[in-house]
Amino acid sequence: MRFCLQSLFHKIHGLTVSEHQRADDLQLIQSGYRYAVSLSHNRHDAEDLIQQACLKVLRQQGTLVGKSYLFTAIRNLFYDSLRKRQGIVDEPLVDNLVADDTIPHTKLIEQKIDLEEILSCLRVEEREVLFLQIVEGYTAQEISTLTQQPRGTVLSLLSRARQRVQQRYDLDQILETK
Amino acid sequence: MNKPSYESEIRKYYTEMELGPEQIQGLLDAVPFAASAKRWKRIALVTSIGLVAMLLLTVSLLFSNSTFNSQHSNQVVNDKVEIERNLNVPDIVEPVLKQSNAPPVEYRLVAFRSHNNQCPHCRATGLVFRDLTDSLNEPAVEMQEFDLSDHAASAGIHQKIREWKLDSLIDGRAETAFIALTDTKGQTIQEFKPSQGTGEIVKQVRKLINP
Prior knowledge:
Chain A is mostly helical.
């Protein structure tokens, strides 16, 4: 009886969604969540981000639209919250802002370095472009469009991120062999 | 054994990361509600626009109607004034208004006889004029015979001569008999003699009044 009333309510308000659409939305939300994790590097923050972004997009568009739209919403929300928390403003990418690779070295040598710690050593921008390229399979041009950065900046970020991760990864392997 | 590359490690790290089922369910349930809300929002917007358009149309119609009414009432007032003005026209105009359906009189065919039937010329003139009265059927021509020998009706005859401004036509003609075609202002167009005959006179009159 309750199911019948619920389905009737859904039919009246046009709330029936096909299973195919639901599966697509599920994939989209999971992708968005991973992107949020890559940005914030914190699961709880990522959960908040994906929920806020989904509600924002749904309120504005009525549907989740697409991956690019959702990613852009997540990105904007993340940087907004970051500005609110830290009071920072957008700053151009300069060499002295790149993560200092000397800080965690001694610490990392002493303990086992896992991937999460490796990724935490990267800057947000580096982690973001690395995620978009390796996990989502975006090209540098697509990443530059999504993040609204020049393609050269994206390539530079990618190069530095790869270099940094490779160094840490090699170091981790050396420690394991010892 | 070779360790997998860092890229595959990163890919695996992120791929294994998934949002909890409760949160996913909550978000997925929100999707149809959001779509419905968006649809109702669009309907409300369209309805509002329609209502505003109808309101504007109604206001414009009311405005135009009031303008028309004011113009119409002014017209009615003007018509009333015109009617009242017409009602104040002197009585002499009334017969003209009453006879407005008939074509206006443009010519007058008159016969003057000084001796009635005592003289042959006057008698012939009377006969021809009576024939003309029967045969000449022209609404634009008003016909009148003046018997100057009838002393009883002398005042009425002279009155009519003055009204029709025919004084100049009979001035200096103490004893005469003739038929004349004049206009409404008393100007003589042509005179006819009884010897011309009824048919010829009719033909000439028609030629003069219908050139």
